[in-house]
Design a protein that fits this description.
This protein folds into four domains: about 160 residues, MoaB/Mog-like domain (Molybdenum Cofactor Biosythetic Enzyme, Chain A); about 60 residues, Alpha-Beta Complex (Molybdopterin biosynthesis moea protein, domain 2), CATH 3.90.105; about 80 residues, Molybdopterin biosynthesis moeA protein, domain 3, CATH 2.170.190.11; about 80 residues, MoeA, C-terminal, domain IV (Beta-clip, Beta Barrel). The protein has seven helices and 26 strands. A six-stranded mixed β-sheet has the order 7-4-6-5-9-8, with no helix packed on it. A six-stranded mixed β-sheet has the order 16-13-17-21-20-18, with helices on both faces. A five-stranded mixed beta barrel has the order 22-24-23-25-26. It binds adenosine monophosphate (AMP) and magnesium ion.
Length: about 425
Amino acid sequence: MNQPTVKADPSCMDDYDPDSLLADDAIRRICDQVAPVEGVEKVAIRSALQRILATDLHSTIDVPGQTNSAMDGYALQSGDLPDDGSRTLKVVGTAWAGRPFEGAPGPAECVRIMTGAPMPAKMDTVVMQEHASRDGDFIRIDARHKPGQNVRAAGEDIAAGECVLPVGKRITPADLGLMASLGIGEIRVRRRIRAAFFSTGDELRSIGEPLASGMIYDSNRYTLYGMLARLGADILDMGVIPDRREDTFKAFRDAAGCADVLITSGGVSVGDADFVKEALDATGRVEFWKVAMKPGRPLAFGSVGDALFFGLPGNPVSVMVTFYLFVQPALRRLMGELAQAPLLLKARSESRLRKKAGRTEYQRGVLMDDANGDLVVKKTGPQGSGILTSMSEANCFVILPLEAESVEPGDIVTVLPFSEIA
Ligand code: AMP
Ligand code: MG
């Protein structure tokens, strides 16, 4: 007698899925389709913090502007340094930072000089004050000195015309100081990008609404808000869209008209109430991918009108992992930022990390020093894709490669610190 057959389509719970895409390939395919926004604006440097430089920035001046002393001491001509024994020089004046010595000292003469003061004419060497014995208007120096010592050459830090900051640089506090040191008050940066997002799901309620049985509060709009705000995007929060065909279609049409990028969460798997696919077939050019990763396998990517589109999974941890992995690099590119690979570290796992081969896993961990100062990592409790506390307690992802299986305590693992991505 024939046994009844049971359907065996690949599902989210399988580890090996022949149709799934590697995470790295997905990132590459996404980034290949993104070009920087074209708009540029001029802003005062203080307002440029975290913005993306739209042009190479060149210095118009030498830094330091003049050859000057690196020490408090005495400026002299190297020809007056004794080869052996000692020598007496006459002190003919003083050079202060901001108040140069204007005279032209001759042989066997020197000038008292302060750190940062311009070198007087013909003087090329500074003897620090601790190495000179002063007696009235005279100093005595010995043979330990080298010609040119303790002098900072004009332009030694930055030469006029040199490129100091490259196009695509995200402006840091150090960059603000650097620009100020060059007398640059305004720079050209890329315009901000505008990111719209909404959540899908009949079960979602917003803060302030009562929670009936079976309902949950929408958290994805808040994590998305935080991650986008940190990147420096302008944000359009479109709220919760119920699982109804008409609402979903309308939300896509609305977003397409006013954003550079649209991000949705939920409704990209194969549930019956998932209208995202259908709405996208009608309004955009979108591909649905299964990525060989955990958490966060289903992902949609493409465009809706002129906006880039990312359809992220619904589970709160999946949203964050897929955002950091796929959306953030794409948005940085859209913003015009130079790509920079995050710093990965190796650490010893103190936990047993359960895993099956077939998907790259992004488990959440706490990275710290042990008593010997070595890097160790511990997992943050249960790793379910709905457990947001696992992200909140973590300070890193523990990246377990596609083919890897469970990790035992003491094994070395690869870690991506959150400070590298956020
Ligand atoms: P979905 O991909 O729509 O099937 O959602 C997967 C899981 O994530 C379900 O348990 C949803 O209730 C949950 N979920 C979806 N969207 C959100 C959200 N915005 N906030 C919190 N949980 C969500
Ligand atoms: Mg849903």
